[in-house]
Amino acid sequence: MAALGSETGGSVRQPASFCGVVGLKPTYGRVSRHGLMAMTSSLDQVGPLARTVTDTARILQVIAGQDERDATSSRQSVPDYLANLPKDIKGMRIGVAAEFFADGLQAEVKELVEKAIAKIKSLAATIVEVSLPSLEYALAAYYVICPSEVSANLARYDGIRYGGRAG
Predict the structure, then answer these.
(1) I need a labelling partner for 65 at 20 to 30 A (CA). Which of 48, 73, 101, 147 fits?
(2) In the predicted model, what is the mean pLDDT of residues 23-49?
(3) Contacts 24+ apart (CB under 8 A), 92-97
(4) Every domain of the chain and the residues it spans
């Protein structure tokens, strides 16, 4: 069981997390957006939802790649996502951003994240604290980019014609 969704700012990942499945927003350009109704062109991506990470990787393997009908699709070769799935995480270095633990984080969310970090450590992975100093501007940037692009992209569907017309 799997599905594809359009993801701008969480529309695949967040519902997946609420439903106990895997949702992935691919790297910009990795998957063609041809046929997707543009909402926010600089943020929109097509992403898979599936029951497992392996199933998600299988779907991504099929949908990833260059598409001549989408100028934003990447020309880079598509890696073998299944081959890159480790059997265990021993020795892996996993970054955890200190900024994710800022004021306003719900206590129960913090507790669950800390339990996940402890589980990862118990599987012999190394947790590395990292810093994303520009993260504080992410939401503000989203709220500038998203409404302006939505307005421009969806204006063509409002029934009002604008701009010059030939013929």
Answers:
(1) 147
(2) 95
(3) 92/125, 92/126, 93/125, 93/126, 93/128, 94/120, 94/125, 94/126, 94/127, 94/128, 95/128, 95/129, 95/130, 96/127, 96/128, 96/129, 96/130, 97/129, 97/130, 97/131, 97/132, 97/135
(4) 1-85, 87-158
Residue 58, both tokens: 């299988």
Q: State pLDDT tens for residues 129-164.
A: 999 999 999 999 999 999 999 998 888 776 666 666
Q: Tell me if residue 134 falls in helix, strand or coil.
A: helix
DSSP 142: H
Tell me the pLDDT tens digit for each residue of 97-136. Answer: 999 998 889 999 999 999 999 999 999 999 999 999 999 9
Alpha helices in the chain (DSSP H): 13-19, 53-63, 107-122, 138-154
